[in-house]
Design brief:
heterodimer, A: 172 residues, mainly alpha, 68% helix, 0% strand, B: 488 residues, two-stranded antiparallel sheet, 19 helices, 73% helix
């Protein structure tokens, strides 16, 4: 329940920040609507939904109200979560929480991705992609260095050949 | 019409073949879905030109529906959300030693439904497109709004959360040049943001990078796959006979569900299973390994994939992430889908539809003998596959505008998408809000201008009034039901 409410608060803050930034864009008149109209509508609507989510999460806790039978609801859920729910033991699903030790690895990879984007223009595509793949493979539990290195060389090289040579994409 | 044969040129046949094989592989692999995979290969397809490129993208889209069933049946791991129901009876059939029959029935059901939905698509899309020629900005606004409301209702989980994600997508779509006046908005002086957030970067981030990050939290063990011999692929006469009625019911249901915005293929498979549980002669056996539980849902998800093409091709409005990627592919190839597609690019329109026929035959011929090979794809260890996916995502995002800014957008979308999954927020409504945002904005502002500032101009015409009323009902009724639920 706490997490639901915090996400709602986060969304409300996002909506407020967006509305604040949108003040710069003129609304003009209804007959000649300006570039500020849709941002204003979208921001206000998101704010309203976020407040609604905040209120309902306080009132009902985690229970969701729905008239649909459980099987149908499971089917309608987001593809990724559905699959994951099928694959994983309930105890180990991501819902278990952000503080879970299982989140440290994805967090490390996320940091690696940020570094990748930062270093891409400096080190070039092949070097930085090689490093990213080796690192990611090791983080995911690949053993040894030979296989990840071979994979990285293959993917970075093939990617470079395919995109830079054949497609003419000016990769860094 | 004769342009249907455009699909038979060698280049287009090859594109169709590559697309359907890639689609099958993506369908087999848990994790990477069709939307992410299509975004990944988008830069490649642009090189192929509009017809071949779109044929390849579409091949991935419906090929994934075929592949998804394979691992559902053999290893109880659905490759796609649309194949989750197939695990119920499919895997039990495999345990009973009828894996071959289940796979064959799944492929045949997919073929029947896929072919039927192309026929319906071929007949319906031009009619809808002709009707849509009369659509003005007010009608487009009403239709896109109705689509987004239905989408939020059907995406599952909490309606308010889906609605919030649609709105976040809409906000992201306002970054960059505004669609009418050319005012640059929300770029915070970043040069790369002027053209707006790259749709490919956001999609590869949300459906590719986020998937890789999520897979690290709970590494999937490489699946052990039972071997199926070619000889075992023949279903018995009894099994075939029992498959026909659910197959036909699933096809019709699936196609109709496919017309509705939302994750149509997934919903269609569940609806079909629910119907079989009510009307099938063998309903008592469902859940214990009945062939009906494979035939119905597998037909339904393929028919829905075809149905989902109608709003895209005839109105230019996509309502699933996969068709949204197709839309962005078309726009990148300077083909604008919608009522004018048939008039301006008949070769593309009929070529893509023709390729559906060819692709369905290819998939049937490929899937029956090679099913064991495709199933083995699921055994590729994640720690080698996922890092490669990461780099491919980065290249796809970069090559959209040859801009490092898009790699940053992809990284941010990936991390955000991972957090969203962890907190149980679905990324699909966000992507559709992002795609439909400019349509909504442009049509709203144009409608207001045409009506000289009279807001009532939005519902002045009959079709617009009906669609807005439907949107209002779809918005209010579930909310009231929820309040009632609270009270009791």
């Amino acid at each position: 329940m706490g997490r639901e409410r915090w996400s709602a608060v986060g969304l409300a803050l996002l909506a407020l920040g967006y509305l604040l930034a949108a003040r710069r864009y003129p609304l003009d008149t209804l007959a000649t609507p300006g570039p500020g109209v849709v941002p204003l509508l979208a921001g206000v609507a998101l704010l309203a939904v976020a407040i609604w989510l905040c209120v309902t999460s306080v009132r009902t806790g985690a229970t969701r109200v729905s008239g649909r039978p459980p099987s149908a609801r499971a089917g309608l859920a987001d593809p990724a979560t559905t699959i994951r729910a099928e694959l994983a033991d309930p105890a180990t699903t991501i819902r278990a929480g952000l503080a879970d030790p299982a989140t440290t690895k994805p967090a490390m990879l996320a940091v690696a991705l940020v570094l990748y984007a930062a270093l891409l223009p400096r080190l070039g595509f092949i070097v930085s992609s090689f490093a990213l793949i080796v690192l990611a493979a090791r983080l995911m539990g690949a053993r040894g260095w030979w296989r990840p290195a071979a994979l990285a060389l293959g993917v970075a090289g093939a990617g470079y050949w395919l995109f830079a040579r054949w497609l003419g994409v000016p990769l860094p | 019409m004769s342009e249907l044969f455009v699909a038979l040129t060698p280049a287009n046949l090859l594109a169709c073949f590559v697309g359907t094989v890639l689609g099958t592989i993506v369908g087999v692999l848990p994790g990477l879905g069709p939307a992410g995979a299509m975004a990944l290969v988008l830069p490649l397809t642009i090189k192929l030109g509009p017809t071949a490129g779109l044929i390849m993208l579409a091949g991935i889209y419906y090929g994934a529906m075929y592949g998804g069933s394979t691992t559902s049946i053999l290893v109880n791991v659905p490759g796609e959300a649309a194949s989750v129901v197939t695990t119920i009876d499919g895997y039990r059939l495999a345990r009973k030693g009828r894996a071959g029959a289940a796979l064959a029935v799944a492929a045949i059901a997919s073929f029947v439904a896929g072919t039927f939905s192309v026929v319906a698509l071929q007949l319906a899309a031009p009619l809808v497109a002709r009707a849509a020629l009369a659509f003005g900005p007010a009608e487009y606004f009403a239709f896109a709004l109705l689509g987004l409301v239905l989408l939020a209702n059907l995406t599952g989980g909490s309606r308010a959360k889906s609605l919030a994600m649609v709105l976040v997508g809409l906000m992201l779509s306002t970054v960059g040049m505004d669609p009418l006046g050319g005012t640059v908005r929300f770029t915070f002086d970043l040069a790369g943001a002027q053209a707006g957030l790259s749709f490919i970067a956001v999609t590869t981030g949300l459906f590719g990078v986020a998937e890789v990050l999520a897979s690290m939290a709970e590494p999937l063990a490489a699946a052990a796959v039972a071997r199926v011999k070619f000889r075992e692929l023949y279903p018995s006469r009894e099994e075939l006979r029992r498959s026909v009625p659910p197959m036909l019911r699933g096809t019709v249901l699936g196609f109709l569900v496919g017309l509705v915005p939302g994750p149509a293929a997934t919903i269609a498979s569940f609806v079909s299973y629910g119907v079989e549980k009510k009307v099938s002669k063998h309903r008592a056996e469902l859940g214990t390994g009945a062939i009906e539980g494979v035939a119905g849902p597998e037909a339904a998800n393929n028919a829905a994939a075809g149905g989902g093409m109608i709003p895209l091709l005839s109105l230019g409005l996509p309502f699933t992430p996969s068709t949204a990627v197709l839309l962005s592919g078309m726009l990148l190839m300077s083909v604008t889908p919608g009522p004018f597609l048939l008039r301006d690019h008949p070769g593309v329109f009929w070529g893509v539809i023709g390729s559906f026929y060819v692709g369905n035959v290819m998939l049937l011929l490929l899937n029956l003998p090679l099913v064991g090979l495709f199933a083995r794809v699921a055994t590729i260890p994640q720690q080698y596959l996922m890092p490669a996916v990461l780099v491919l995502c980065a290249v796809a995002a970069y090559s959209d505008n040859n801009n490092i800014f898009d790699v940053w957008v992809m990284t941010a979308a990936g991390i955000a998408g991972w957090a969203m999954r962890a907190l149980d927020w679905s990324p699909a409504p966000l992507v559709l809000g992002l795609v439909l945002g400019p349509v909504l904005e442009r049509s709203l502002l144009q409608a207001l201008t045409i009506a000289r500032g009279e807001v009532s101009g939005l519902w002045a015409s009959g079709p617009a009034l009906v669609m807005l009323a439907a949107a209002l009902i779809a918005f209010v009724v579930p909310g009231l039901a929820a309040l009632k639920g609270h009270a009791s």
